[in-house]
Design brief:
heterodimer; A: mainly alpha; B: about 450 residues; mainly alpha; MetI-like fold; disordered N terminus
Chain lengths: ~300, ~450
């Protein structure tokens, strides 16, 4: 009977893949390979592709990672190596608790608080680092834009919010890996006269490398799939936008949330195809992450 | 007593030990035979001992000094010297200044390694402070902004059916969303709990190649994007079976999201159940199923409850699957198989899309209710899950002791009865006396 339960779990996962593929074939057979290269999304005119939304998804996820990785790495090291045991338990609980906060609440915060406070920062970055192409913000005429309205609802803001959302997951994966560092090796480093940071650098970080990479990739998977917070913040566009500070970006999941209602049967099939691509990407990332964690020293015992 | 000062054989050590044990020798008499020498420390330079825990007074002064200096510099730079503005810029300048001053102050007394150590550790502290601060701020911001709507009692008992966007907060409420969430989560739990825990049992008790495969799949399922779960249910249930959006479909989508979390957390808990309990059950001749049902699951009960609660907390917060499979409504809908049924997170989303301040206030109020619900569930999980499998509360321990006491009495009485019956049977043929042990037990 418990065998059947295992089968059911696998069956659900398979069914997700099978149903999405089945429903997506309609659209994919029409679009063919251009599904991956076309930026526009209008299934009514048979002209649709996920190049722009996929690009948006990846930019948001990369910005999220650049926010979350330093924070989670620092917090994980601090929790596992430095703070006294009592504070340690409290911090672990707090971080786990944060992993349970619904994404819609992060979205609310992003829209009503962060947006207004990040715009000056975006403006400053754009003014001072505008010579780096991705930080440049130009208006329709191709000149540098400075007004605040050019900086709202950007990939940058969505990325920060998604970054904060994935930090708890990353922190707990990394902390788990660090805390498995053998005591003997730590003590060895300390006995040789190393400082605490020297010990972390030479023993804990190399030992936990698999955990760090695994945690980052798990966070990446989460960031790619995040829907509602991104949907609340961004203003959707269907062109590739390299200027991450500028208004307008898109993501696969928010495309689905945006269009599911108005879609015809064929449009729905196109959305299924987009969902299938997202599903396959997150699956690939997740399998890579778990194999890295399992192959590393720190993950060897915790299969 | 023949103790040589150049004791080389291992036996002499044993001899010494035994003599010490008998009190015939004391430590002083053995001194010349000690073979471990502490090398003379003369001429050898021994560095200061590294302190790796605690902060000496001087260290704290360094922190305060650097903080004071950096704040002053930031104020100077921003107020007088340079045309810089903005709070974020101020904070960044102050932070970089702090690191610089701190490094200088530490380097007055310590070497390069230690300066590096101090600076890196203060960086780690700042990362954690920023992280915890930001996360707490997200929560507190929601609760504070929710205060406008929460004091109105009607907010919890009315629906939005008759209340428009411009109506004051004293009209309308989220009763329909609360009911919707409860019903959806209830249905999702009905499916996810038996399936999840049985799968976890399968992973742990049966094992094998297939179980490893299932574990990999369920781990991959943890990262399944929620919108994909929504699409799946849309394709599999709505277009094929029900042909309309419903609370039931939303519950199924939530199930898909909750299942991997419950499996994973239960798996961890079941793995902690001590092997000797299982072996004892098998040794008593019980079947696998009976062992699981009567030994493994009861032992891991508190952990399993925690797993379920964690899954629930995650499931309650899911927005996008409900958006796709159930949809927005302002009406109370108690029939899960007919028509849209809204849930709390979706209601938040629906409220804040309106530009009206009252609707936004309702949105924050709903978010605060949702957040409090999740926090309560999480706190509950912590309280119940604080104990490992098999660890009992004081009350449970007392119950166990009382039960085994009753068992002891029952067994001795039964034994005595059997003994007496045997005696009666024996007396009819030959005469024997009652064994003294039974007499003691009976008295």
């Amino acid at each position: 009977m418990s065998y059947a339960a295992g089968m059911t779990t696998v069956g659900i996962m398979l069914a997700v893949g099978i149903f999405l593929t089945m429903r997506a074939t309609d659209a994919l057979s029409v679009a063919g390979f251009s599904f991956l290269t076309e930026q526009e999304w209008s299934p009514e005119t048979q002209k649709f592709g996920i190049a722009a939304v996929l690009f948006g998804t990846i930019t948001i996820a990369l910005i999220a990672l650049s926010v979350s990785v330093p924070l989670s790495l620092g917090a994980a090291l601090l929790i596992s190596e430095i703070v006294p045991p009592k504070l340690k338990t409290a911090l672990i609980t707090l971080v786990d608790l944060m992993a349970a906060v619904p994404s819609v609440i992060f979205g609310l915060w992003g829209v009503f608080f962060l947006q207004a406070n990040v715009i000056p920062v975006s403006q400053w970055i754009s003014n001072n680092f505008g010579w780096i192409p991705i930080f440049r913000v130009t208006n329709a005429a191709g000149e540098l834009a400075t007004e605040a309205s050019a900086f709202t609802s950007s990939a940058f803001i969505a990325g920060i919010v998604v970054g904060l959302m994935v930090v708890p997951t990353q922190t707990s994966v990394m902390r788990e890996a660090f805390s498995q560092t053998p005591m003997g090796e730590r003590e060895g480093a300390l006995a040789l006269g190393s400082t605490r940071w020297g010990m972390i650098q030479t023993v804990v970080l190399p030992f936990g490398r698999g955990g760090i990479i695994g945690g980052i990739m798990l966070g990446l998977g989460r960031a790619l799939g995040e829907t509602i917070a991104v949907y609340m913040i961004i203003s959707p566009i269907f062109v590739i936008n390299w200027e991450v500070l500028k208004t307008g970006t898109n993501s696969v999941s928010s495309l689905i949330a945006l269009r599911y209602g108005e879609s015809s049967q064929f449009g729905l099939s196109a959305l299924m195809a987009a969902g299938l691509v997202l599903f396959l990407i997150t699956l690939a990332i997740n399998f890579t992450a778990s194999s890295i964690v399992a192959r590393s020293r720190s993950g060897a015992e915790s299969g | 007593m023949t103790i040589t000062s150049n004791g080389t054989a291992g036996s002499s050590e044993e001899q010494e030990d035994s003599l010490l044990g008998q009190g015939l020798l004391n430590e002083d008499m053995l001194a010349p035979s000690a073979r471990t020498f502490i090398p003379s420390s003369e001429g050898v330079e021994v560095g200061a001992r590294r302190t790796i825990h605690g902060t000496p007074l001087e260290e704290r002064f360094n922190v305060f000094g650097a903080a004071a200096a950096s704040i002053s510099v930031a104020i100077l730079v921003f107020g007088w010297f340079a045309p810089l503005t903005g709070q974020v810029g101020w904070a960044v300048v102050a932070f970089i200044g702090f690191l610089g001053f701190y490094a200088v102050l530490v380097s007055l007394k310590a070497d390069g390694q230690e300066v590096k150590d101090r600076v890196m550790i203060s960086l780690l502290y700042s990362a954690a402070v920023i992280l915890i601060g930001a996360l707490l701020f997200v929560v507190i911001y929601t609760l504070i902004r929710g205060q406008d709507a929460l004091p109105h009692a009607n907010f919890f008992f009315q629906t939005m059916e008759l209340a428009g966007p411009l109506d004051p907060l004293s009209m309308g409420g989220i009763a329909h969303a609360i009911m919707g969430t409860l019903m959806q989560i209830g249905m999702a739990l009905l499916v996810a709990v038996p399936l999840g825990i049985t799968t976890a049992v399968f992973l742990n008790e049966i094992g094998g190649k297939f179980a490893r495969f299932v574990r990999t799949i369920s781990d991959a399922m943890t990262a399944l994007p929620s919108i994909v779960a929504g699409l799946f249910v849309y394709a599999a249930i709505i277009t094929l079976i029900t042909h309309q959006r419903s609370g039931f479909a939303a519950a199924m989508a939530i199930t898909v999201m909750m299942l991997p979390i419950i499996i994973r957390a239960s798996d961890v808990v079941l793995r902690l159940v001590a092997g000797n309990l299982r072996e004892a059950a098998y040794a008593l001749g019980s079947t696998k199923w009976r062992t699981v049902w009567q030994v493994v699951l009861p032992t891991a009960r508190s952990g399993l409850v925690t797993a379920v609660i964690l899954g629930t907390a995650r499931g309650i917060g899911e927005t996008s699957p409900v958006l796709l499979t159930s949809g927005v409504t302002a009406v109370m809908n108690l029939n899960p198989f007919d028509g849209p049924m809204i849930s709390l997170p979706l209601q938040v989303f629906a409220f804040v899309r309106s530009p009206e301040p009252n609707m936004v206030a309702r949105g924050f109020g709903t978010a605060a209710v949702l957040l409090l619900l999740v926090l309560t569930l999480f706190a509950l999980a912590r309280v119940l899950g604080g104990r490992g499998p098999g660890q009992l509360t004081v009350r449970q321990q007392r119950a166990v002791v009382a039960r085994s006491g009753r068992d002891a009495i029952r067994l001795t009485i039964a034994g005595a009865r059997r003994e007496r019956a045997a005696q009666v049977a024996a007396e009819s043929s030959t005469s024997t006396s009652t064994p003294p042990a039974i007499k003691d037990a009976l008295s």
